[in-house]
Design brief:
The protein is mainly β.
C-alpha cells in the first residue's frame, strides 16, 4: 500500500494536461530589542526570527482525476540577552516540513476514491544535545479510501476523507538507554502503524478576502503496531489511543508586503504525552506572493 500511495501521488503531481492552480507565499518575521547592562529594571534583550512558506499545486488532470499537493515549511530561532548584556546561543523556536499529495478519482459518485501520501519532518533535530541530525525524525503517512468535496465555491473549499491508513516513523541514530538509565548505544529505529484515518481540509476568505482562514483536522485510530510486543506495563496500550491533529491559520494581508499571521495548533498523541499539546504563534512581518 505504501508503494501504491506514493506512486499515485507522484504520477498525479508529474502529469501535465490542463493548467495548474498554483499558489505560493513566504513571510519573514523579526523581533529585536537590546539593553545596556546599566539599564536597570531587570529587562533583558531578545532576538527572534521566523521564516514561513506555504505552497499549493492543484490540477484537474482529466474528468476522472484530480490532484492536490501542499507544502508547508517553517523555521525560526530565538536568542536572549542576560542582565550582563551577553547574548545566549540561538535556540529553535519553530521547525516544520510537511508535504502532502492527494489524488482523487472524480467519477461522479457521491464520494470519490482517493490515494494520499504525506511526509513530515523537520530541518534540524536538536532533541539530543550531543548530536545534530538533519531531516530527522521522519514520518510517512499513506491512505486509501473515500473522499467527498462538501463545499466548492470560488475560494471556499471543504473536503473530507475517510479510509485505511499506514504510518511509518523513522528515527536515525536514536539513543539506546540501558536498564540503569545510561546511554548504551545509538541505533536507527523504525516502527509501523496501520488503522483508520480521517482528514478534513477547509479554506475560506474572510473580511472581503483580506483574511484567509485555513483549517486542517486529522484523526488516526491505530489498529496494529509493529512494536506492540516490546511495550509492557501501564503504557503498553498507549498506541491504541486516538491521535488528533488540528491546525488553524488566520493570514491577514494588511498591505501587499505586510502581514499578520495567527497559527494555533492542537496535537494529541498519547505515546508522546498523555495531555493535549498546544502551540500558538502570532507574527507580524513581511510577506511575498511568489505565485
Amino acid at each position: 500500500m505504501t508503494r501504491i500511495g506514493i506512486a499515485l501521488a507522484l504520477v498525479a503531481t508529474l502529469a501535465a494536461a490542463t493548467p495548474w492552480n498554483l499558489a505560493a507565499d513566504a513571510n519573514l518575521t523579526l523581533n529585536q530589542n537590546a539593553y545596556t547592562n546599566n539599564w536597570g529594571g531587570g529587562a533583558t534583550g531578545l532576538l527572534a526570527y521566523a521564516l514561513n512558506s506555504n505552497s499549493l499545486a492543484e490540477k484537474q488532470l482529466n474528468s476522472k482525476m484530480n490532484t492536490r499537493s501542499t507544502l508547508k515549511l517553517a523555521f525560526g530561532q530565538t536568542s536572549t540577552q542576560d542582565t550582563s548584556g551577553n547574548w545566549g546561543a540561538l535556540v529553535k523556536s519553530t521547525d516544520e516540513i510537511d508535504l502532502e499529495s492527494v489524488l482523487r478519482f472524480t467519477l461522479g459518485f457521491v464520494v470519490d476514491p482517493f490515494a494520499s501520501a504525506e511526509v513530515q519532518s523537520q530541518f534540524w533535530d536538536k532533541s539530543d544535545a550531543t548530536l545534530s541530525r538533519y531531516f530527522n525524525p521522519m514520518d510517512l503517512n499513506e491512505g486509501l479510501g473515500l473522499a467527498r468535496q462538501i463545499v466548492k465555491h470560488d475560494k471556499t473549499e471543504l473536503v473530507s476523507r475517510l479510509g485505511f491508513g499506514l504510518k511509518q516513523k523513522f528515527d536515525r541514530q536514536a539513543l539506546v538507554v540501558d536498564t540503569f538509565g545510561l546511554v548504551a548505544d545509538r541505533e536507527n529505529r523504525s516502527s509501523n502503524y496501520g488503522g483508520i484515518t480521517f482528514a478534513t481540509d477547509f479554506t475560506t476568505p474572510l473580511a472581503q478576502e483580506k483574511i484567509l482562514y485555513t483549517s486542517k483536522l486529522t484523526l488516526f485510530q491505530a489498529l496494529f503496531y509493529s512494536e506492540a510486543s516490546m511495550h509492557t506495563g501501564s503504557t503498553a496500550d498507549y498506541w491504541k489511543a486516538l491521535d488528533v491533529g488540528w491546525e488553524n491559520v488566520f493570514a491577514v494581508s494588511v498591505t501587499k508586503v505586510l502581514m499578520v499571521n495567527l497559527d494555533a495548533q492542537l496535537l494529541y498523541d498519547k505515546e508522546i504525552d498523555t495531555k493535549v499539546r498546544l502551540k500558538e504563534t502570532l507574527a507580524l512581518g513581511l510577506t511575498c506572493k511568489l505565485i
